[in-house]
Fold:
Amino acid sequence: MHPSPTDGPFTSLDATDVVLGFGGDRVVDGVSLTLRPASVTALVGPNGSGKSTLLRALARLHVPNSGTVLLGGRPVSTLHPREFARHVTLFAQSRTAPAGLSVREVVAFGRHPHRHRFAGLSSTDRDVVTQAMSETGLLPMADRAAGQLSGGELQRVWLATCLAQQTGTILLDEPTNHLDLRYQMETLDLIRDLVEIRGAAVGVVLHDLDHAARIADHLVLLHQGRVISEGPPQAVLTAAHIQTAYGVQVEVTVDARTGRLRIDPDTRHPPRVMTHDPDPLRKDPTT
Structure:
C-alpha cells in the first residue's frame, strides 16, 4: 500500500527515468531527480533542453512516455486532482488574466483546493489571499482589474495565486521573466523564504545562471534532454560544463566578498572600459 501524501504537505516529489516527447520527438530522455522539502532545485540549460517539459511532467500536465513520478512515494497519476493540488502548485509561463476580475479575485483562485464545494471564501482564505498579495507587493492594486495590468504585474499576480494555494511543493517556470530588477530580486528572495521559513520543496526553471547560483541548493544542468551535471551550484556551473551545454566559452570565478559565483561569457566584443567623464554635460573645472 502506498503512503498517502495527505499525511503532511511537506514531502518529496520524485521523477525516475522519465522519458517525455511530442509525437516522435524525444524531449526528455531518462531523467531522474528529487525535489526535497526545505530545498530549492533549479533546472537550467539552453533553449530546447527539456526544462519546462520536465517541470510540466512533475505537475501532471505531461504524461511520461516511460518512467515514474511519485509524490510521497505514490504515483501522481493515482491522486485525485484536488488532492494533488493541495500538495503541488505550478507557476507557468504565458498565463492571461480572466476578464472582469480584480487582482484579489484572481489570487483567491489559489484557495480552490482547500474550499468545500460551492462554499465561499472563509476568513482564513481571505487572510491567506491578503498575505500572498503582501508578499508579492500587490496590496496597493488589490482591487484593480487584472486585465489592465502590465506583463510584469500580471506575473506577480499568478505568483501570488500559487502562494495562496499553500502547498508543500512549488514548481516555478521562469518566475523572473518580464520582471524589472527590483521584482526579480524580490522574487528570488521570496523563493528562499518559501524554503527557509515554510520548509517547501521548490523546483524552478531559470535561464539566468547567476540567479540559479544565487538561490539553488541543488542544480540540474540539462542538455538535449539529458542531465549532464547535477549537484551544488559550484560543482555544476563550471566552465567545462557550461561550454558543453551552451557551446560558449565562459570564465567562472567566486566573488571574494559575497562568495557567489560570477559567470562571464567570452564575446566578440570585449567589455567596455570607461575612459571619459560619464557626465558629458558637466563643465570642465579647468575652463
